Amino acid sequence: MRDMIVSELSQATHEVVQEFAHLLPRLLVMLIIVCAGWLVAYLVKAMLRSALRLLKFDRLSEDAGAAQLLNKAALPSSTELLSRLVFWVVLLGFVLLGINALGVIALGEDISRFFLFLPRLFVAVLILFFGMFASSFFSRAALLAAVNANLRSPRMLSYSARVVIVLLAVSMAFEELGIAENTILAAFSIVFGALMLGLAIAFGMGGRDLARQFLDRRFAEERVPAKKEDELSPL
Amino acid sequence: MPSKPDALWYKDAVIYQVHVRAFQDSNGDGIGDFRGLEQKLGYLQDLGINTIWLMPFFPSPLRDDGYDIADYVSVHPNYGTLDDFKGFLDAAHQCGIRVIIELVLNHTSDQHPWFQESRKSVDNPRRDWYVWSDTDARYRGVRIIFVDTENSNWAWDPISKAYYWHRFFSHQPDLNFDNSAVREEIWNVMKFWLELGVDGFRLDAVPYLVEREGTSCENLPETHDVIKELRAKLDQHFPVKVLLAEANQWPADLRPYFGEGDEFHMAFHFPLMPRMFMGLKLEDRKPITEILQQTPKIPDVCQWCLFLRNHDELTLEMVTDLERDYMYDEYARDRSMRINVGIRRRLAPLLENDRRRIELMNGLLMSLPGTPIIYYGDEIGMGDNVHLGDRNGVRTPMQWDGGWNSGFSTADPESLYAALILNPLYGYQAVNVQSQKRMPHSLLLWTRRLIQVRKSTPVFGRGSIEFLYPENHRILAYVRQLGSETVLAVNNLSQSAQAVELDLSRYQGSIPIEMFGRNLFPRVGHLPYLLTMGPYQFYWFRLRRL
Amino acid sequence: MAEESILSDELVRHLISVGEVDLLVGVPTYNDARTVGHVVQVVRAGLLKYFPRERAAILNADGGSQDETPGLVQAASISDARNPAALRSLRTLHSISTRYFGNPSRATALHTIIAAADLLQAKACAVIAPESSNIEPEWIDRLLRPVCRQDIDFVTPLYRRHKFEGMLVTNLLYPMTRAIYGWRIREPYPAEFAFSGRFGSHLVGHEMWREEACRAGAEICFTIAAMAGSFRLHQSFLGPKGHLEQSSPDLVPAMRQTVGTLFWSLDQYFTTWSASTETKGVPTLGAEYEFMMESVRVNRERLYQMFRTGVAELEPVLASILSRATLDELKHSAALDEQQFQYGDELWVKTIYEFAASYQRSVINRDHIIQALVPLYRGRTCTFLLQNREASEPEVEQHIENLCLTFERLKPYLLELWQGRKGGS
What we know:
The complex is a heterotrimer.
Chain A: H1 2-54, H2 57-64, H3 66-72, H4 78-102, H5 105-148, H6 154-177, H7 181-206, H8 208-219
Chain B: E1 15-18, H1 20-23, H2 34-39, H3 41-47, E2 51-54, H4 82-94, E3 98-104, H5 113-118, E4 132-133, E5 154-157, E6 162-165, H6 180-196, E7 200-204, H7 221-237, E8 242-245, H8 251-254, E9 266-268, H9 272-282, H10 286-294, E10 303-307, E11 314-315, H11 321-331, E12 342-343, H12 347-350, H13 355-367, E13 371-375, H14 433-438, H15 443-455, H16 459-462, E14 464-468, E15 475-482, E16 485-492, E17 498-502, E18 511-514, E19 529-533, E20 538-544
Parallel strand pairs in B: 1-2, 1-13, 2-3, 3-7, 7-8, 8-9, 9-10, 10-13
Antiparallel strand pairs in B: 4-6, 5-6, 11-12, 14-15, 15-16, 16-20, 17-19, 18-20
Helix pairs in contact in B: 9-10, 9-11, 13-15
Chain C: H1 2-6, H2 9-18, E1 23-29, H3 33-50, E2 56-62, H4 69-74, E3 94-99, H5 106-119, E4 124-127, H6 137-150, E5 154-162, H7 167-181, E6 193-196, H8 197-204, H9 212-216, H10 218-228, E7 233-240, H11 251-268, H12 270-275, E8 284-285, E9 290-292, H13 300-313, H14 315-321, H15 324-335, H16 345-361, H17 366-388, H18 393-409, H19 411-418
Parallel strand pairs in C: 1-2, 1-4, 2-3, 5-7, 5-9, 7-8
Antiparallel strand pairs in C: 4-6, 5-6
Helix pairs in contact in C: 3-6, 5-8, 7-11, 7-18, 10-11, 11-16, 11-17, 13-15, 13-17, 16-17, 16-19
């Protein structure tokens, strides 16, 4: 009996050692891939950082309002953040390649799905970025127009414009990523539709007289010739 | 003479204005005469003209170049005898050339026997043949015509101790046409010459025949009555003879001189002439088209006479002040060229001896509606001499060749009635008939060709005119039409090349045939007809439908 | 060449017929039937009265009017006795109306006129605003004579204005262009002006036509190009300025057309204006200025309220444009009540210069920078109105002159901002 146990143990140990010996080169390859990946990721990060600095990406994201958001969240600047993100994505990609090299089949499909997911992630990030930019631009435009037209609550108008555009951008990003697509779409439609309907009712009922005056001024034959008091020609 | 006299022969006439004194001297006294003129009829026949208008050749003290007549029914001895005149007249008729002579009706010389009689006393039978007054207060405000030399229309006669009326020089007292005896005598004068064989009269200074208080003493109804009377007698006794009016008036005031075809047959279109020169300088057809638009229609039997220059100054009476100043500045910057509200220069010097402009102006003369008159010497581009007094600078001897006195006279050069033009540009050595006959493209031979083309169709003399108004204002274009004959004349008034699009839609399908070279041009289509024209170029196209 | 693409075939055909001219008068229009007939009649009368011998033409560049505008212009043509006008003229006077390509735009109309003038080799060209219903024939003489007879390249107008009219000109455009470019041109944004063939040739192929900022305010671009180049300048007094009766120009587009273009030009002509250190007078025909002194009611309170609201609501925007010191001063002023409020010359000039520098650096969208200036301008007009409420004509002029001198004195400050030594925000 003792001999049998010794013999089984030896055989088991031998098999493990053999497995290990079989795995070791793959492990080695994986480490090499990961190291190479780290190098590549670092290079890409450095090149991207330089490129973004050249394109004054920080300025753009200031305009977009992204810089302020990042600041508040105590995150680094847009250039740095994007560079680091790209670094980690590239590194992750190489790690997954390395894991793939290990030959664990079950992981293979997941790894492929991850690589297929990357372009959509990139597009979603772009949508978000441009959405931020547009929201900043249009909210400022709305603010300036409202102030110069002497409308009440210009900030609210400006803020509303920003919120609507951000919501739209976020919805589009989520849709692109395929995360809770239908929920997001429905939620956005409901919110946006309700907002517009509310505005229409408010304007239609509350602004009836104003609307009539506006139309009269625009389309009626006889125009009221009297100048307003403060409308001396500036030129 | 033509075998069948055409009642409207004057519409086809090409008239040559000449002073017998200036044309050819046959007897070596330095003054042209009728025998000399007769010798040169061949030249005129060759040139192609068919009518001569003779300036006054009557006995005269010649203080106004013969317009101060001292005897209406004779010939000044300087120019020959009455027989010489008759000989010339017959020879002209033999050559197919008609002759119109000039009669100054309005006034005579103060040397005329009539005036000599009239001034003797208030009881003289001829007293009333002139317009006398004890004061110079009558007819106040009437304009003075010779502003450079006269300061009143009344002159004091020391013999008669009274004032006499004169619209022109003070030595040219006005006849009194209120007197029937005057009118009768004038008819007798006309009859005398008509019986000799002349083909018509140019009647000088007709607007001024009659005076009335409180008027301008011009163009009065009574004046027209006088004309009508004379014309009636002419038609009765001498049909196919012509009366040509010299009346420097606006077109609307000229119109009455045609009456209803019972006054003058022809009248000079004075207002058109300065405007032709103006249009050329402005490079704009507006002055020309404007005056012709304002020209009233005349009876079918009547005719305008057109001219570029004549023995008088280029008159600027019938233009606005703005236009007059412009003409002076452009054509007579040198004040010595100006006289009596006009410019005393010949055609070639006015146009700076520019052959293109001379051709263009002659082209207009021959193609606008009316009978053209060529002033002697302009067919070779003679120059002028502004330093001779009055308007004598444009009345210098004809230049026949480069020899002795330019072939005009065998007399001593110093004894010529007027000095020849001598400068290198216009002098007789450079500008003369003989030289130009030897040059195929000389102005003389070109003018001959021009007259030939003009006479090839009656449309120029008898046809209607319709102006085209292309947007390019530098182009003067018009269509002349008579029956089925249609001629398109296009003139570039500009010194630079021009493109013009003509609306010829009415003539769609016609083939334009250029009349000088007889070459075909592209058929008229439905699009505007594009022509490109060189500086001062003109085209005459016969539009044929085939 | 640039002009070939902006001149339609139809216009070129007309120009062929017109041929070389001595004078061209351009009238840019868009639905101006109410006034253009009278304007063109007066232009014609002026040409015939003062330039009877010159070859002249009138060109109307129209943006596609739906009213009678083109027909009214063509009716002014004088040709061949078909025009019943009693006025006698030596020459044909062409009057052409053409529709230019694209949307109605004053810049395109002006470009068409300038290109046509160049093709026709016009020695002098004048542009007349179609709304100048109080135009007199003398205007044609005063605009064109300096070009024709005195070899001037660019003539700007002088107007008789109400002292509170054209405050954008008296408080910003005139003082700033004077300080920057060194020429005392009172109306740098002229409705009427004239130029020589030489200057027209310079303008016709200029790159300004491709720049949106320049097209928005072409007139002030011309003035700046004339001042910055070595062109001979002149001013002519005309009379009261014409305005469209029933509209008062919206301030924001007015600022874009003038201030926006002015700011844009600073970059283009930096070499020229940075070197200019003194201002020079321009030969003038007639009075230098004339004010109408009638009292007019202006709602100063509303202006002040809009200024205050602007400063408060636009603080984040202003913070990215102005320096901290200037913004603080503004906020301090905005906190005062209307009677104590004063937007002094020095603060105003600093505001403008900081705006100009920020515009150059595009700290935010440039159009937003211009819009942000509007409420501050209202604040400035408030001060100007108060300052000159009881002022006499010489006093008003003195106040304007003081402002000009302040602009000139602070020019080095602008240069520092430009070269980035002092940060804007």
